[in-house]
Amino acid sequence: MLARFAMRGALRATVRRYQSTQAVNTLASVFEEYREKNYAQTLPSRFAKEVVGAADANGDGFLTKEEIATIFENIGATEAMSSDEINEAVNTLAGADGELSTAEFIDLLTGKK
Predict the structure, then answer these.
(1) Which of 50, 71, 73, 93 is the least crowded, having the fewest Cβ atoms under 10 Å away?
(2) Closest alpha carbon to 63 in 22, 29, 109, 32
(3) How many domains does the chain fold into?
(4) Where residue 103 sits, what CATH number does that domain have?
(5) What is the pLDDT of residues 68-78, one digit of tens each?
């Protein structure tokens, strides 16, 4: 229970860092809700690594919009975000280099950024 409260606080801080864009907030919330329902006994860092491992289909260390959309399909969350919202979230998270590394995505899911 304490870990869930800590994760929610970390999630809020992460979302604020990305200037609370609605798309980033929704993206993080979808994964957090899925974690709470299906991985409640798993550490957030372990969950994040499993999600990223499943998402990074080609193993290049970066996540594309398509790879994130595929994960949404796999977890039954296709209605949670449109492809435009996923694009906006990835573009916001990727920053200046235009690429969303798996490490950056793990940081989002674990609240380290």
Answers:
(1) 73
(2) 109
(3) 1
(4) 1.10.238.10
(5) 999 999 999 99
